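Complex 249.
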Amino acid sequence: MDIRFDGKTALVTGAASGIGEAIALDLGRAGARVIVADLHEPAAEKVAAQIRAEGGTGIAAGGDVADPQVVEGLVDLARRNGGLHLLVNNAGIGGEGKPTGDYSLDGWHRVIDVNLNAVFYGLRFGIPAMLDAGGGAIVNMASILGSVGYAGSPAYVAAKHAVVGLTKAAAIDYGDKGIRANAVGPAFIDTPLLSHMPKEKIDWLVSRHPVGRLGTAAEVSALVLFLLSEQASFITGSYHLVDGGYTAP
Ligand code: NAI
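Predicted structure with NAI bound:
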C-alpha cells in the first residue's frame, strides 16, 4: 500500500523526539510539507533539516502548545504554507509519578495543560483551517492509558482518557464536513519519554507486553500515517491501539 501526501501540509506537535519525530520524518518521506513543532526549537530544526536533506519540505517552529496563542500561531504557519490538511496532536509529557492523594496541584495542571488542553487548542484552531483547506484528517496521540489505568499517574491517565472522548466528539461534529479524527493508543514505546525509568522498571514493562518487548516509534508512525491517509477514508471517531497485546489479558 503506497501512502502519499503530495501537496498536503501537515502539522505535528512534539515532533522533535520519539514518536512525533518518526511521524514527521515519515510524513516528509510521503510527500507532505511538514511543520515540525516542538518546545525545543533547535531540536525541531534538526528534524526539519533531516526532512529537507531527504528531499522533502520541513519547517521548524518552537513554542509551548499549552499556550493557545502558540497553537494558533502554528496553525497560521500551516495556512501560510499551503493550508492545513493533516494534524497530529502528539506533544505530551509523563508528569510526576505519585498516587492520586499525593499528586501536586501544579503537576496536575501541567499534565492536563500539555496532554489535554493543547489537544483541544489544536482542534479549536486547526479545524477552521482544515475546513478552509477543503477537509483533512486528524490524529490525537492518546495511549493505552486512554482506556486502562496505571499506578501513580492520575493526571496522565485522566488526560489520555479525555483525549479519546474529545476525539470522538470532534469526529461527530465534522464527520459530514470532510474532516476525520481518530485517537491512537500506544503501549510503552522505546522513546526518550521512558529514559528516566530504571532498568528493572523497563524489564517489568516489557513483561506486560505479550509480544515480549516495547514498541518502536516507527510502529506507531505506521498506524498514524494510515489513519491520516485516504486508505482510512471510512475510519473516524475511533481509538486505535498499537500495544503489542498489552490490553489483551
Ligand atoms: P518524547 O518525550 O520522546 O517526545 C515528546 C516531544 O514533545 C518532545 O520533543 C518534547 O519536547 C515535546 N513537548 C513536550 N511538551 C511540550 C509542549 N508543552 N509544547 C511543545 N512540545 C512539547 O515522548 P514520546 O514517547 O515520543 O511521546 C509522544 C506522545 O506519545 C505523547 O503524547 C505521549 O504521551 C504519547 N505516548 C507515549 C508512549 C511511550 O511509551 N513513549 C506511550 C503512549 C503514548
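The beta strands are 9-13, 33-38, 57-62, 86-89, 136-141, 179-186, 239-242.
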